[in-house]
Specification:
Helix content: 55-70%
Shape: elongated
Radius of gyration: 17 Å
Order of helices and strands: HHHHEEHHHH
Number of strands: 2
Strand order of the largest sheet: 1-2
Structural class: mainly alpha
Number of domains: 2
Distance between the termini: 48 Å
Oligomer: single chain
Number of helices: 8
Strand content: under 5%
Length: about 140
């Protein structure tokens, strides 16, 4: 893949799988643009899985940021996105009574694609369980 395609993939904030694929390809390249993109994702990607793979690729190639080594840090706990409960409440309020988890997921992805992507990427297989636990605790209409 060419660098422009990979840059677009790395910038797709609503698809962590695409960003992860871009990181894997960028790790094989040896140009300044690929190094810059890897450093940015290693520091700023909201999905820890993407951040970690970008960090490992950057570390393997001795990539620094502003002349300093890049550190991974710990996986964040708590809310990954400020105001997520408010967003989830808005999603719930847009649905009819008796909605299913799939209805909720679809509406969440439609209304807040970046937030959906961040949580789906972060929670992995636990995403549906997390949603099932959070939805009943949201404030009433």
């Amino acid at each position: 893949m060419d660098i422009e395609t990979l840059k677009k993939m790395a910038n797709n904030k609503s698809n962590w799988r695409e960003r992860l694929q871009a990181v894997e390809e960028l790790g094989k390249m040896d140009c300044q643009q690929s190094k810059d993109i890897l450093a940015r994702l290693a520091i700023h990607d909201p999905v820890f899985r993407v951040k970690e793979v970008a960090f490992r690729a950057a570390q393997a190639r001795n990539i620094t940021y502003a002349g300093k080594p890049i550190f991974l840090g710990k996986k964040p706990k708590g809310n990954l996105i400020e105001g997520i409960n408010k967003k989830l409440t808005v999603v719930r309020n847009k649905l009819n009574e008796g909605f299913t988890l799939d209805d909720f997921k679809q509406k969440f992805a439609e209304m807040y694609p970046e937030a959906y992507d961040t949580y789906e990427g972060d929670k992995g297989e636990q995403f549906e369980k997390w949603l099932s636990n959070v939805i009943p605790t949201l404030p009433n209409k």
